[in-house]
Specification:
With 610 residues, the chain is α+β, with helices and mostly antiparallel strands. Helices cover 33% and strands 27% of the residues. The protein has two domains: 3-174, 3-Layer(aba) Sandwich (Carbamate kinase), CATH 3.40.1160.10; 254-580 and 590-600, VC0802-like (2-Layer Sandwich), CATH 3.30.2130. The chain binds adenosine-5'-diphosphate, aspartic acid (ASP) and magnesium ion.
């Protein structure tokens, strides 16, 4: 008999009536002939209330006790849910994380799942019971209660679905599915019918709060079909599944994080080992880094910027100051920023997506402080108070309320990466996943190089709204395909942008830049046709905070200087000198234990077809 996992979020079980309604859904599903595992969150705002209670006692509750406290919210819900099922005439058993056998590591308040023992659940299901599992919690090896991080019941649900080989994991929530952006912020947002794992991973990790991003890591790793559905209405919701073959919209969705802090290390030495030093310090201090932006060094010095959650700013500044006191340079920061990102596979087959986003922002007089891209996302950092304006404008600019599916520009590879379809990594991933010792361990499925790129850098641009739009509209209109785009923080009122293009288009790029650069008297353009780009591909690369540290360690130990960096959930790329590409590739592959097949040789991606 097939198993369905049904997860109900806090609002879906907020009161007795809603608990009954959720119980009825599970009972109906069981009566239709399936076995049902419910995963239930704490009721309504219960978890927030518990956090508030702790704050009344102490400003610094110990994480272990916090987990002991927060896990009670879910325990209350599962018991009530079991009673509601009993009232409807079906058998049900409520189980805590420990009773289901959700084993986690010991990192309280953000624990990762190591294993789940399915026997007890299977026995209960076979005995005709509905299993009602507490979301968000587990136990470490000493049976201390742990929690998975806020919003973690989604992750429990996807993990149980993976462990039980469930046919479907349904996520019942207070909206009708996954929308093009938060429908509570943009009322014209439209519901998405189907979104790929990679798009949802990016959307979730870039701020779309509808799903816990780690739940999508589980879904992708273990090929769990997820469906986000409305609790309070009928409707098919949104399917989260492998990428369909048919064309997708240019942009699938837009996500934002209201509060981000930027820390920049300015004027640090531009030589091997510098990134290693910074990232090992951040990793040792367990500070999750979000955007990482390093553009090309000038006169022997480089500037690195990264963003962290606003609450980590103080600790990050301490780390940054330690780094600069060792190696020189100064630290700058801005704690008043927001990040707005657009996500979609459509970017791989359409030119000018970045240009269009930058133009919309410029038309609304929104200055862009930092830009990073990956093959399926473009993120910009802007002033915090302009976040809502930017979200509305970009949503409208890409006509997301209508979800138009454009025909791809035939034969034109991605503006943001020609390497996107280099190979199907799902088989490699499946192999690696089957050998993981812990369910949430990192998966690095491939590491490859691409030497068919050239870098163009523009410095001394006036830092005014519209700079990036002017540059990238000119480049897109010239028919040049742009891959990585990096804009680092402006210094002394001067912005700088680096991007990569096919080497044969460098001359054309310089030509088309002449017109937009007329407005910027001091602007200087430089190019380097001898670069190599290395990409580490996997699942959850950003949520595993040590990936950057491991990469920079491997490159630093091989005396390789990093010129540009960009990151996403599924890929981290660095640009190095062309003649160091093979060494860098080998260093990275051995660092991630991928050194044992013919792919060790540098393997360039296919040349662009247009
Ligand atoms: P639950 O308690 O069911 O887990 P959450 O509050 O965690 O629910 O997630 C649902 C909320 O996510 C919605 O109410 C909505 O405001 C927010 N949200 C943010 N981005 C999106 C999006 N792209 N699509 C749908 N909802 C979104
Ligand atoms: N109750 C937890 C929270 O509010 C987990 C969840 O709802 O997913 O964060
Ligand atoms: Mg949630």
């Amino acid at each position: 008999m097939s198993i369905v996992v049904q997860k109900f979020g806090g609002t879906s079980v907020a009161d007795a009536e809603r608990i009954r309604r959720a119980a009825k859904k599970a009972v109906d599903t069981k009566r239709s002939g399936q076995q049902v595992v419910m995963v239930v969150s704490a009721r309504g705002k219960k978890t927030d209330e518990l956090v508030g209670l702790a704050a009344e006692i102490t400003a610094q509750p110990r994480p272990r006790e916090m987990d002991m406290l927060l896990s009670t919210g879910e325990q209350e819900s599962v018991a009530l849910m079991a009673m509601a099922v009993h009232e409807l005439g079906e058998e049900a058993i409520s189980l805590t994380g420990a009773q289901i056998g959700v084993r986690t590591d010991g990192s309280h308040t953000k624990a990762r799942i190591i294993s789940i023992s399915t026997q007890r659940m299977k026995d209960a299901l076979d005995a005709g019971q509905i299993v009602i599992a507490a979301g968000f919690q587990g136990v470490d090896e000493d049976f201390n209660i742990t929690t998975l991080g806020r919003g973690g019941s989604d992750t429990t649900a996807a993990a149980l679905a993976a462990a039980l080989d469930a046919e479907m994991c349904e996520i019942y929530t207070d909206v009708e599915g996954v929308f093009t952006t938060d429908p509570r912020v943009v009322s014209s947002a439209s519901k998405i019918e189907r979104v790929s794992y990679d798009e949802m991973l990016e959307l979730a990790s870039l701020g779309a709060g509808v799903m816990h991003s780690r739940s999508i890591e589980f879904a992708k790793k273990y090929r769990v079909s997820l469906r986000v559905k409305p609790s309070f209405a009928a409707g098919p919701g949104t399917l989260i599944a492998p990428r369909p073959a048919q064309p997708t919209p240019m942009v699938t969705g837009l996500a934002f994080v209201r509060s981000e802090a930027r820390v920049s290390l300015i004027g640090i030495p531009d030589h091997p080992g510098v990134m290693k030093r910074i990232f090992s310090l951040l990793c040792d201090n367990r500070i999750p880094v979000d955007m990482v932006v390093q553009n090309v060094g000038i006169a022997g010095t480089a500037n690195v910027s990264f963003t962290v959650a606003a609450e980590d700013l103080d600790r990050t500044l301490t780390v940054a100051k330690t780094a600069t006191s060792d190696m020189g340079g100064t630290v700058q920061h801005n704690g008043n920023l927001s990040k707005v990102s657009v996500v979609g596979h459509g970017m791989q087959t359409h030119t000018g997506v970045a240009a269009q986003m930058f133009r919309v922002l410029a038309d609304n007089s929104i200055n862009i402080h930092i830009v990073t891209t990956s093959e399926i996302k473009i993120s910009v950092l802007i002033d915090h108070e302009l976040c809502d304006l930017a979200v509305q404008a970009v949503h409208e600019g890409f006509q997301l309320s209508q979800q138009i599916v454009h025909t791809p520009h035939v034969g034109v590879p991605s503006e943001l990466s020609q390497t996107a379809t280099r190979r199907d990594t799902s088989e490699l991933e499946a192999d690696i996943v089957s050998q993981l010792s812990g369910m949430e361990e990192i998966v690095v499925s491939d590491i490859y190089s691409d030497t068919d790129q050239a870098r163009v850098t523009i410095t001394h641009l006036d830092d005014t709204p519209g700079v990036a739009a002017d540059v990238f509209c000119a480049v897109a209109n010239g028919g040049v395909l742009v891959d990585m785009i990096i804009q680092n923080v402006a210094l002394d009122g001067q912005a700088n942008i680096s991007f990569t293009v096919p080497p044969e288009d460098v001359a054309k790029t310089i030509q088309v830049l002449k017109t937009p650069l007329k407005k910027h008297a001091a602007a200087q353009v430089s190019c380097d046709e001898s670069i190599g780009k290395l990409s580490v591909v996997g699942i959850g690369l950003r949520s595993h905070t040590d990936v950057g540290a491991r990469m920079f360690q491997a490159l630093g130990d091989s005396a390789i200087n990093v010129q540009m960096v960009n990151t996403s959930e599924i890929k981290v790329s660095v640009v190095v000198a062309a003649d160091q590409t093979a060494t860098a590739l080998n260093a990275l592959r051995s660092s991630f234990n991928l050194n044992d097949d013919e792919d060790v040789q540098p393997s360039d991606s296919p040349a662009p077809t247009a």
